[in-house]
Write a structure and sequence with these properties.
It is built from 7 helices and 9 strands. It is of the alpha+beta class and 242 residues long. The strands form 3 sheets. It has a 4-stranded antiparallel beta sheet. A hairpin with a 6-residue loop joins strand 4 and strand 5. The longest helix is centred in the C-terminal third of the chain and has 41 residues. The protein is elongated, with a radius of gyration of 39 Å.
């Protein structure tokens, strides 16, 4: 606002009452989140700027805020037996099928293949589709619930996808690999190995000590025999052995 004084002093506010998710600094117009945990998608915020002069002039604009849910723990991977380029061409239709059968809002986070890109696009009929679902309240649906619904609607989903790709389609759920060993488990294993090594070393030391003691005893007995093969006095030998 080029005006001076109160006529040039602008205050900003949100006018569509979304203060639970977002807020705005009335002096700078900076928008920031308040509580968006478990939410995703695009929010349309109506922002008003008003000067502080007599008669207060105002204007409004819409700010689109997109929340990226890609770091969510509730992402589910659906594996389609189709080439990745075919899935990419029909991704909007795939989204509509999933939303229709799951009865939730579905966001497709990523489409990829585990093979090298050139080979995957020409010969590999395996494509991974990362999805996340949100309910009517725009709350994130747990991965387990999404998987359960996908299993329940699997035949219906595949039937609709066959219409899109004009061929038989399978839609499988990719299960996450087993969790790797926790630091506590690794520490326990390492400690067990160290204890086992210590025990083995101790046993070797004991056996060596016993063997050495026996060797020394035999040497003492041999010292009781002189060079001519005659025994020394038995009393001396008995004293030595005791």
């Amino acid at each position: 606002d080029p005006d001076s004084g109160d006529n040039g002093l602008l205050l900003y506010s949100l006018v569509n009452n979304q203060m639970n998710e977002f807020d705005i600094d009335e002096n700078t117009g900076q928008i920031f989140t308040v509580s968006v945990a478990g939410k995703a998608g695009t929010f349309y915020l109506e922002v008003q700027a008003a000067d502080q002069g007599t008669g207060r002039l105002t204007t409004r604009t819409t700010v689109n805020v997109t929340l990226d849910p890609s770091s969510s723990n509730n992402i589910v991977v659906v594996v389609l037996n189709q080439k990745i380029n075919a899935v990419e061409r029909n991704i909007a239709a795939v989204k509509r099928v999933l939303e229709g059968k799951l009865a939730w809002t579905v966001y497709i986070i990523d489409v990829y293949s585990n093979e090298f890109e050139r080979k995957a696009r020409s010969s590999t009929d395996v494509t991974h589709v990362k999805i996340i679902a949100f309910d009517e309240a725009n709350q994130e649906v747990s991965a387990e619930d999404v998987k359960r619904k996908l299993r329940e609607q699997n035949s219906n989903i595949e039937m609709e996808l066959e219409k899109i790709f004009s061929t038989s389609v399978t839609a499988a759920i990719e299960e996450a690999p087993a969790d790797s060993a926790t630091p506590e488990l690794v520490a326990t294993i390492v400690l067990g190995v160290l204890l086992a090594c210590t025990l083995v070393a101790f046993l070797v030391y004991v056996l060596f000590a016993i063997k050495r003691k026996r060797y020394n005893k035999q040497a003492e007995i041999m010292e009781g025999i002189d060079q001519n093969g005659s025994l020394k006095s038995l009393e001396t030998l008995k004293h030595t052995n005791n």
